[in-house]
């Protein structure tokens, strides 16, 4: 009888431990559902509306204008494109650049789809947890995540620009070693 | 060269399909965008159909030549890119209709969790109905153009009859559409990922694994040297394309670090450099597709993939370092 009891005890412990895993996960889930979800949802509504009111045509014009120098090409354009078009369509703005600069624009734009995501989650909702995963720990401590989001964005502005610019040089290097020539002027179709 | 049609059905737990793929004189290439490795199904498709396979990671081909695209996207983006261009897509992973391009993922163009056993030669009746389906897809395109022109006429209408009324109507309709889109995004991408991550957190916190992770994560993410090392590893050019897909790995590592910050094992100041350290591989799996969106030439893709992998490597560790410098004073004295 005593043996029976011990076995039952082990079984009960095991079962409650097992369900405990899900209870712990469920409380995290419902916490996020009531805090992150409504916030992100309403932000998405506003951003989607703004974007469709401004329209694609204006964005194209802006992209053509920005192709001229590294500063607008790897800082202003990818930042605005990420904000307006989100991931992955932000990359499509690269079609207005000369072939040689497309990889650099890609390098920069892909990073802007993350570094601005803390303040503007509409940019890349599918990969939100790069930001949110870390930010949820910070907010658990009762700290304001906006402070972190702003620094994330600012460091991103500087370093994504540098990243795009560095790619100009790696492209030069790869062109040299493979013997492929890429045009530095825009093809007029 | 003689071409044959094949039929592709979804695997267990997969989504979409069945697709019938019929090579034609112009559309006769298999494009695989799978981070540089070649899935087995590529060889089977080549053997059955007689088409040529092209590694999208090394070069690119005009969209009009692609008969079928093969992706290995567990996350989000690549699943929808080719269906959006009306190109039939096979995913070797079981991803369903999700991601920012979910609306383009339809069973007529997309099938997932496909292995070699899901591919077979199509009989003639199926091949015939496939050409019919092709005609249908082409029919939808002018419709889309019609839609766009409709928006323009709507905009032009504002000239005469009470600009304000039309303006208000347009704003309301725009917001309503924006809300629909937003709810859709939250339902199809954010909430599923939250459920997945919550379960992982539950298992980690509720079981003993959490303590092991804490032991590994705290020294790695709790000081600048560990974070620099993490950033260095993620940016290695031979690893970075493999770490990329759907940013899933980065998101999980981020969540693990977040859990430790929440527990007080890692100082919140390190959240900033950590955000950069877990993501030095940012977009390395996606280079050919991203360049494709820019309508880049094949030789640009060839150069671009290598070039971006190098620049991510050069730029990776400095990013983490600068973020660390910028983190001074963050959450201090709280």
TrEMBL record, chain B:
Spans traversing the lipid bilayer: 182-204, 224-243
Query: From which residue to which does any coiled coil extend?
Result: none
Q: Which GO terms describe its cellular component?
A: plasma membrane
Outline the segment boundaries, as ranges, of region: Disordered: 127-149
The UniProt record lists the keyword Membrane = yes
Question: What would be one Pfam family of this protein?
Answer: EIIBC-GUT_N
As stated in the Swiss-Prot or TrEMBL entry, residues carrying the post-translational modification Phosphocysteine are 73
Q: Does the keyword Transmembrane helix apply?
A: yes
The source's superkingdom equals Bacteria
Q: Which UniProt keywords apply?
A: Membrane, Transmembrane, Transmembrane helix
Q: Which InterPro entries match?
A: PTS_EIIBC_GUT_C, PTS_EIIBC_GUT_N, PTS_sorb_EIIBC
Q: Where is the PTS EIIB type-5 domain?
A: 2-191
GO MF term set: protein-N(PI)-phosphohistidine-sugar phosphotransferase activity
An example GO biological process term is: phosphoenolpyruvate-dependent sugar phosphotransferase system
What the entry lists under NCBIfam families is as follows: EIIBC-GUT (TIGR00825)
* The protein's name in its UniProt record: Glucitol/sorbitol-specific PTS system IIB component
